[in-house]
Amino acid sequence: MASADSQPRFGQSVKGLLSDKVGSCSGDVIALTRQVLKGSRSQELLGQAARNMVIQEDAILHSEDSLRKMSIITTHLQYQQEAIQKK
Amino acid sequence: MAATGDEAAAMDSISREPTAVSAGLVTAASGVPQAERSDDPPETPSSAPKKPGTNSDGGVETAEEAVEPAEPDIDELCSDMFEKMAIFLQGELTATCEDYLLLENMNKLTSLKYMEMKDISVNISRNLQDLNNKYASLQPYLDQINKIEEQVSALEQAAYKLDAYSKKLEARFKKLEKR
User: Fold this and answer.
1) B148-168, pLDDT tens digit by residue?
2) CB contact under 8 A, A60 and B113
3) Which residues constitute the signal peptide according to the record (chain A) (predicted)?
4) Nearest CA to CA, how far is A35 from chain B (Å)?
5) Cα distance between residue B89 and residue B81, in whole Å
6) How does A48-63 read in b/e, with b if 16+ C-beta sit within 10 Å?
7) How far away is chain B from the Cα of A38, in angstroms, using its nearest Cα?
8) For chain B, first and last CA: distance in Å?
9) For B62, which DSSP code?
10) Is A26 close to B85, i.e. CB distance below 8 A?
């Protein structure tokens, strides 16, 4: 990450040197931030987690539908049992 | 000897000039308005930008320090630069934070869905247990029904046998009657 412009430039004004230095420092800070984010692998992990969640959602919906049908069947069985008991 | 005197005067002039330059720098740093400088730069010797040059008075070459005039809005530019840099870095980090928040919300919704499914499962389990208990109370009656069904089947078989025997008997009777 060291700046390539560490060599002194002769014949350049102080203002130009300062502006170059400030620009290089800013670029270094930005590159450091991006490297830290890249090293944390958060984008990859979060993307994989989101994909798994989307795949899982279909199974969850199917399971919920099955459970609701099971509850309806159980209710019908209760009605039949009460009718048998009455008779 | 005259040349020596000239050289001494030149050395004196050289020794005085850096102090004038430093005085000019101090004046600029204290925030003295330099508006006149933009209009007439060469007029005021203390505020004029001094370019690096050589002073060859008396045959002695000297170099002067290059001094840039301080801009009045440099502080504002610096603060603006740092603010924008901070906003940029914050944006870079906020993107990842937003992804985590999205994943957190998705997890919360999934947990709610699982809780609903858990409630439904608990209800189903309770209902089925009640049903099993009630069917257990009805079990003696169901056993009686099974026994009755077996006896009815046996009665039906006996009836078929009796029917067949009676038909044989009838046929033999008719045969004997014909003789």
Assistant:
1) 999 999 999 999 999 999 999
2) yes
3) none
4) 11
5) 12
6) ebeeebeeeeeeeeee
7) 11
8) 192
9) E
10) yes
